[in-house]
Amino acid sequence: MIHEASPIVISGPSGCGKDTIVTKLREMDEHISLAVSATTRAPRGEEVDGLDYYFLSREEFEKRIENDEFIEYVQYNDNYYGTLRSELTRLANEGKKCVLVIEVKGAANIIARYPDCLSIFVMPPSMDELDRRLHKRASETEDEIRKRLRIALDEIKRAGQYKHVVVNDDLDATIEEIHKLIVGG
Ligand code: ADP
Ligand code: 5GP
Asked: 8-183: which CATH topology?
């Protein structure tokens, strides 16, 4: 049977810790799963096609836009990113809670479509700490890091569109807080 459950939306500036948090949540709770997004950006580090993202060419991505395969998509930093409808139905059919880790414009579209969905903005403790984390991850060039920090300032202004804002200072405490929000504790 095909059905579409309301997804869980998690956003926050690049480098604030979203992937680290969601990876841990999935390890500790088998009912939580991540909708794999599609993107035209190049794979980074150990990223695996189909697990971290579906890495598509621009041409392929645009073909899928035309075929109405995305529930939302955006252009972020010169690349496309989008959530495939097929991911939501796949996870719903597996009985999983479907987490979308997406940026603020895509999140606004999902929240408009599912007004009752759980939405969480992960806030860095400070801009200095965000800068440190982006450098620690060492996956982008200096120029790219600077761009992401600029985008972060705009993203933080949109934190009010989310039901919850969680400051990711102590990682374990953040994971526990978000897990409680997801399981409704
Ligand atoms: P995002 O997915 O939001 O871009 P990542 O999960 O890749 O961010 O985290 C960026 C960097 O910050 C990684 O090196 C990660 O280990 C580190 N990090 C995440 N959360 C914390 C935290 N609470 N305290 C210190 N470092 C953190
Ligand atoms: P990154 O290049 O760091 O993996 O992702 C850049 C930004 O795009 C992050 O804020 C990430 O959450 C967001 N993103 C990833 N997938 C999607 C998606 O499918 N849709 C939208 N709107 N944003 C996404």
From this structure: Rossmann fold (3.40.50)
